[in-house]
Design goal:
TIGR02217 family protein; 6-stranded mixed β-sheet; mainly beta; single chain; 4-stranded antiparallel β-sheet; DUF2460; about 210 residues; 2 helices
């Protein structure tokens, strides 16, 4: 991914953000009144407004410095989605090595991309995970956990698990993984309007962020 900085947006500000996934659906209404609906995007694109989290001069200074170092919209960075940043089901505290199925072994394939499954009854959606958190990735083959550095490595800049020589999953073995993850985003503005109306506090009314894809 070009022009991307592997740095995390300030967490204390991110935790007070607002936003979520966006889909692009084309709807055509026929003469009969029936609709034809077509998904223009295979994957959702997420948006957030981080301005809600800036309520002090200290936070204000940190965000402005972060914005300047990213050169506004030029460089991407990591964003921690408070609602959705783990492979584990809601209510489960930590990722488990069997959380998400990422492939089936064939005895030779060594590379498996991380994904997260949403739904499972009508039209389950598999979301590619490209920015796992370093040290959080756990992997199992056939339900048996493997050891990072001994059996596999994970590229946390791409979201790819690679099994080391001699440890490729055997034919038919289910490969699963658990992980924490960030979202690759960029600022969706080249201008930050800073509000200094209060003596001891500051605010940035809008800090729009948008997900970027590799």
């Amino acid at each position: 991914m070009a022009a991307f900085h592997e740095v995390l947006f300030p967490l204390d500000v991110a935790l007070k953000s607002a936003g979520g996934p966006e889909r692009r659906t084309e709807i055509v209404t026929l003469a009969s009144g029936r609709e034809e609906r077509n998904a223009r995007w295979a994957h959702a694109r997420r948006r957030w407004d981080a301005g809600y989290g800036v309520r002090s001069f200290a936070a204000l200074a940190v965000v402005v410095a972060f914005f300047e170092e990213r050169r506004g919209r030029l460089h991407g960075f990591r964003w921690r989605d408070r609602l959705d940043h783990s492979s584990a089901p809601p209510g489960v505290a930590a990722p488990r090595p069997v959380d998400q199925q990422i492939g089936i072994g064939d005895g030779t394939t060594a590379d498996f991309d991380l994904v997260k499954l949403y739904g499972g009854v009508h039209a389950p959606y598999r979301r590619p995970i490209g920015k796992p958190v370093a040290g959080s990735v756990r992997v199992a083959v056939g339900g048996v956990e493997r050891t990072a550095g001994t059996h596999f490595v994970c590229d946390v800049t791409r979201g790819r698990v690679t099994f080391l020589a001699g440890h490729q999953p055997p034919p038919g073995a289910v490969v699963t993984a658990g992980f924490l993850f960030d979202v690759p985003v960029r600022f969706d503005t080249d201008y930050l309007e800073v509000d200094l109306s209060a003596f001891e506090a500051g605010a940035i009314p809008k800090i729009p962020l948008i997900e970027i894809r590799p």
